[in-house]
Specification:
This protein has eleven helices and 13 strands. By secondary structure, the chain is α/β, with parallel strands linked by helices. It starts with a strand and ends with a helix.
Length: 357
């Protein structure tokens, strides 16, 4: 056996694969390490597993457990009787390759030097993250997933999973994402990248502490503006000052973020998002999607300014043209891109209905 799985003190699991992992744009690492959490039980047929792909800034902790009572980022969605019903499903969430919550990434130790990889870590593509996770799912003995499900960057992963492994899942749920990153998506992240790299303390990626990087803090403040709709922000913060002002809101949330997220991981992952494009070599989405055997649900938020409704509609139409069995939900919300984190009751209904159909 060339891998091992161990239980961690916080209830999560550590998957370590000694085989060299090759990245699409060059470079290898060994071992490959992925942190993940599970909820519910895998049945005897091994056909009840749901793989949830998380967004850029979150991790594998979907919901609280006896071993880790901290509230998860999708707390209300997972558990007995919930939309991701652990009485029936085995729910898996894997921390993304390149992230900083237990999986291999820039802050991981390089076995050759004993020091953190930093910017010597190979550049990452969305497809690399999927290939890494497929190793773990294979190691769990799961040949075919019941469902792959993702939000935002996570839905990029879910879509890529079905393109790369078209027979490996029965269902796909894509929430607030796209088939490729558009220039307007990338422009905001380019600005964030430059804010970070122009900070002298970033020091070419060899910084002392992410929390000390003013450029990282500014970048996160800019990113936060794309997660909510501007109309909602205007209504929420108009004529507010002090701790109720939008300035305080941005600073508070950015400072909280930079204290627990590694800056280089952030740069690597936004780069992966910027290069995301699931068209084939000829630029055809129809051809790329033609092998997908799963039933698909695309959920769009009408106030999303990060991944716009037009991008959601483009994804839906490309799947439809590829003769994929696909349905589309247009969700009305004032919360913009963050709606899937805020309005969990409605999103839970969409997921439950699709899983039970």
């Amino acid at each position: 056996m060339n891998h091992q799985i161990s239980r961690q003190a916080d209830g999560s699991f550590r998957f370590e694969d000694e085989r060299a992992f090759e990245f699409e744009r060059g470079g290898t690492i060994a071992p490959l390490v992925l942190a993940y959490e599970t909820y519910g039980e895998l049945n005897e047929a091994r056909d009840n597993a749901i793989l949830v792909h998380h967004a850029l800034s979150t991790n594998s902790h979907l919901a609280s457990t006896p071993a880790n009572p901290d509230t998860g980022w999708w707390e209300d969605m997972v558990g007995p009787g919930a939309s991701l019903d652990t009485d029936h499903f085995y729910v898996i969430c894997i921390n993304n390759l390149g992230s900083c919550f237990g999986s291999s990434g820039p802050s991981s130790p390089d076995p050759e030097t004993g020091r953190a990889y930093r910017t010597t870590f190979p550049r990452i593509m969305i497809t690399d993250i999927v290939h890494a996770q497929k190793r773990l799912v294979d190691a769990l003995g799961i040949e075919r997933l019941h469902t792959v499900l993702g939000n935002s960057m996570g839905a990029m992963l879910s879509l890529a999973w079905l393109v790369l492994y078209p027979e490996s899942a029965n269902r796909l749920i894509s929430i607030s994402s796209c088939a490729q990153s558009f220039p307007a998506n990338n422009a905001n992240r380019y600005l964030q990248r430059d804010m970070i790299k122009l900070d002298p303390r970033w020091n070419g990626g060899d910084y002392e502490d992410s929390a000390l990087l003013q450029g990282f803090r500014l970048a996160r403040r800019l990113g936060l503006l794309t997660y909510r709709n501007w109309a909602e922000l205007n209504e929420r913060f108009v004529n507010k000052t002090g701790e109720e002002s939008i300035d305080h809101y941005l600073e508070y949330n950015a400072e909280k973020f930079v204290k627990h997220f590694d800056c280089n991981s952030y740069l690597y992952l936004i780069d992966a998002m910027n290069t995301f494009n699931m068209a084939d070599e000829d630029g055809s989405f129809q051809s790329a999607f033609s092998g997908i055997a799963a039933r698909v649900l695309v959920v769009s938020v009408d106030s999303d300014i990060l991944f716009t409704p037009g991008q959601q509609r483009d994804l839906y139409r490309a799947l439809e043209q590829a003769d994929v069995e696909v349905s589309f939900i247009k969700h009305h919300s004032s919360y913009g891109h963050d709606a899937f984190l805020v309005e969990t009751e409605r999103f839970g209904e969409y997921i439950r209905d699709f899983l039970q159909a």
